[in-house]
Design goal:
The complex is a heterodimer of chains A (194) and B (578). Chain A is mostly helical and 194 residues long. Chain A contains six helices and five strands; from the N terminus they run H-H-E-E-H-E-H-H-E-E-H. In chain A, helix 4 (137-151) crosses helix 5 (155-164). The radius of gyration of chain A is 22 Å and the shape is extended. The longest helix of chain B is centred in the C-terminal third of the chain and has 32 residues, at 541-572. The chains are: A mainly alpha (194), B mainly alpha (578).
Chain lengths: 194, 578
């Protein structure tokens, strides 16, 4: 018993130093040097000003921008929470229906053939993190019509920008392709400014 | 709709896991035989550690001494972590100035990490300082995992030791698990994660103005280092509240696969270590096969259910899969796989909102936990819990053919079967009693977020998860009320849920652990009889099927009524509830 108590105290002291401080500090040191950009949140800068992170979605409301997925946290990346909307929740149905109506109202103006059944699920269901950086390609194709018309760009040009900012599957196999909304919108601004 | 590409992802993951198992299993076998390393120059660190611990690496402990060492180190860890959480306000590395945790919540969190559960009633990035995350939680991620591995190795020795009636030395197994398994793999994983975009920085949050002019901040922290051990040790407590759904924890489809492999690597690998240590690799593969059968079936059901979509979205006129609470980059297959991986292993990390899974898609993760976390399970605890079910299967088979039950040549006596019953029934009993107490007494109702059967599911999930040391949640269920105020002034815990859950986690961890050590102690040194013509072979597919049947029977008989009241109701109806 006494031996175990001694070993416990010494072990916890040593392990707190090694695993609690040395290990994370070593990872921080190597990470900051070898992968500086990634270790600091993959920040995206435009004209020397940080406008966000490539990995974090943000809220877009202007019609000239592609819109991110709905967020339960108003796209706040420093206090994340799930929506916890249940699959049989009356609130869930109402929220989805309201978002679908808004989506139809907005995008339908630029694509008269758009029906409710054709709305991609990611456009009306909140993401896990609330800051999902991606939308599905199907969602982007619908929004591209609006963005192209509002900006006065040819649809083919906008579609090509969508393709350029679509992150494919990992190794071509794992996960799903997604369009990075922030990167795409930054590219659009640069395209229009040119 | 499920897609061929989705099934391909599932198949590839299964193949990768199966390929990794014998490799890691052989490595761990070498580590825990270990004397070659100890004598070599590479063993200098290990020898030095034993010196300051005043431990003789040649020492042998019987099961009682072994269990005592486990309990003492766990108690010490609990006290240290509780103290750190309660005095958070005075520690360094606290850029956001978070205040100390309340007593009830800190009890829950300390119990959660020491029992390798990592249940999150706390919200990571908005209540815990970097110091608490690193020196408090991350250390326990390592320690509780190493304790689990050590106990599994000791239990295997109970089966393999022919002449010794001892189980090895806890301090040696514990040290080797940390030094040669957890720390090096975690370090490599952490760097891989950083290279892929998982953040690792001690700087305060970086403020920025979004493209449309919103003032926001990028929360930074030592995430990658904690992420690696969170997965590898089947701990699951995330740096961020939404865990591996947060892009800063899990930034891509590729990292997602690595994370899932990291969760299952050690629990799966230990089946191969078991096979090698008892000198019958087929026996290890039989256990792997039984676990894998459950796993594959669970993935298929969840994937199909989620790809079908939820009643709420169908009634709102939206076709396609259920993406509520899911991230685009993982999609249906990557999310369904993760939900199953994290619940078969007692990990509890999540990459999507479990609460927003469909009725059937949410019932399967619950059922996974209800098996007692034996489908791969937690590091170490999965194997030793599975071995109790193997004993049970041998016992049932013995009754059927009228022979004394034998496992690996050792007779299984009445005492071992009794201890097995304690070990296998402790967690179900805790889970059901706690759920009933929370609902019937009304004290648990404050924790519920959604109404109707969903509220019952939340409660059941909470106590099944905590009693089985999983840690994932239908996250609507809460034990902590957090106002939107700087430094968390005015935050408080929900005492009933915090204490009940904390108690369930501790009992659910240590009752089976002591019971299985006692079984191993009884088996160690027992003479092994050579196989005869009447011996029941336990390394065959037939016996694997019997083991699967035994697990199903125990879990079903115990939990079906409770499952029917919550997730199954939701899965079978299109009705909406408030």
């Amino acid at each position: 018993m006494k031996r175990d108590a001694h070993a416990t105290v010494v072990a916890l002291a040593v392990l707190t130093l090694v695993l609690g401080l040395a290990y994370p500090l070593a990872v921080t040191g190597v990470g900051q040097v070898a992968f500086h950009d990634a270790a600091n949140g993959s920040q995206l800068t435009v004209d020397g000003r940080t406008v966000g992170s490539r990995l974090l979605g943000q809220g877009f409301r202007a019609t000239r921008y592609f819109h991110s997925r709905p967020s339960q946290t108003d796209w706040n990346p420093s206090a994340t929470a799930f929506s916890n909307a249940g699959p049989n929740g009356a609130d869930t149905r109402a929220a989805i229906a309201a978002r679908a109506a808004a989506y139809l109202r907005l995008e339908g103006r630029y694509d008269s053939g758009l029906t409710r059944a054709a709305i991609p699920p990611d456009a009306v269901q909140t993401s896990g993190s609330g800051v999902d950086p991606h939308i599905t390609v199907a969602n982007a194709r619908i929004q591209a019509r609006r963005v192209a018309q509002v900006r006065g760009l040819p649809l083919a040009r906008v579609d090509r920008l969508v393709d350029e900012h679509t992150d494919g599957r990992g190794l071509g196999l794992f996960g799903e392709p997604g369009v990075n909304v922030l990167e795409l919108n930054v590219a659009l601004d640069q395209e229009t400014a040119r | 709709m499920t897609t061929a590409q989705g099934w391909l992802q599932v198949g590839l993951f299964c193949a990768l896991l199966t390929a990794l198992t014998p490799l890691l299993g052989a490595y761990m076998h070498k580590v825990f035989r270990g004397d070659a390393i100890l004598a070599s120059s590479a063993g200098r660190v290990e020898r030095g550690f034993y010196r300051i611990l005043r431990v003789d690496p040649g020492e042998e402990q019987d099961w009682k001494a072994y269990a005592r060492s486990v309990l003492v180190v766990s108690l010490g860890s609990w006290l240290l972590l509780y103290l750190i959480l309660r005095t958070q306000g005075i520690h360094p590395f606290n850029p956001a100035g978070f205040s100390s945790g309340p007593a009830d919540l800190s009890f829950n969190t300390a119990s959660s990490f020491v029992s390798n559960t990592n249940w999150q009633f706390y919200a990571g990035e908005t209540t815990l300082s970097n110091f608490s995350q690193m020196a408090g939680l991350a250390v326990q991620n390592f320690v509780s995992a190493a304790v689990g591995i050590a106990v599994a190795i000791a239990v295997i020795r109970g089966f393999s030791n022919r002449s010794l009636s001892t189980l090895g030395c806890f301090w040696v197994d514990f040290t080797r698990a940390l030094l040669y398994v957890l720390l090096p793999i975690a370090f490599a994983l952490a760097l891989l994660f950083v290279s892929q975009g998982v953040v690792q920085s001690l700087a305060p949050a970086r403020a920025f103005t979004s493209l449309e002019g919103a003032e926001q901040a990028i929360a930074l922290g030592p995430v990658a280092s904690q992420e690696a051990i969170k997965l590898l040790g089947t701990n699951g407590g995330g740096f961020f509240n939404v865990n591996s759904a947060m892009p800063f924890e899990n930034p891509s489809g590729l990292v997602n696969v690595v994370q899932m492999l990291a969760i299952l690597a050690i629990p799966a690998g230990l089946t191969a270590t078991f096979g090698r240590m008892v000198g019958n690799r087929r026996q290890g593969w039989m256990i792997y096969g039984a676990m894998f059968a459950f796993f594959a079936a669970a993935v298929a059901i969840v994937y199909a259910a989620e790809a079908h979509g939820s009643p709420a979205q169908h009634l709102a006129g939206i076709a396609g899969g259920n993406l509520e609470g899911k991230e685009t980059r993982f999609g249906m297959p990557g999310t369904s796989l993760f939900a199953v991986v994290t619940t078969v292993a007692s990990c509890g990390a999540v990459n999507a909102a479990m609460e927003s899974l469909t009725g059937i898609g949410g019932a399967i993760p619950m059922a996974n936990m209800m098996t007692g976390e034996v489908i791969f399970g937690g590091v170490g605890s999965g194997l030793y819990s599975m071995l109790m079910f193997v004993i049970l299967a041998v016992f049932v088979a013995g009754l059927m053919v009228g022979r004394t039950p034998e496992l690996l040549g050792k007779k299984i006596g009445a005492r071992e079967v009794k201890l097995t019953m304690i070990g296998t029934l402790a967690a179900p009993l805790l889970a059901l009693v706690a759920t009933a107490a929370a609902i019937a007494s009304g004290h648990g109702l404050r924790s519920i977020h959604n109404g109707g059967p969903q509220g019952f599911s939340e409660t059941l999930y909470a106590y099944v998860s905590q009693a089985n040391n999983n840690g994932s949640a239908f996250a609507g269920y809460t034990g902590f009320v957090q106002p939107n105020a700087p430094g968390n002034a005015g935050a408080f815990g929900l005492t009933f849920a915090d204490l009940l859950g904390g108690g369930a986690m501790l009992a659910g961890r240590f009752l089976p652990l002591v019971a299985v050590l006692a079984i191993a102690g009884a088996l160690a040194g027992r003479t092994a009889h050579p196989d005869g013509p009447g011996t029941l072979r336990t390394d065959t597919a037939t016996f694997g099927a019997l083991t699967i049947g035994t697990i199903l029977l125990v879990a079903l008989l115990t939990f079906v009524p409770a499952l029917l009241l919550g997730p199954v109701v939701q899965g079978l109806t299109d009705r909406m509830f408030r």
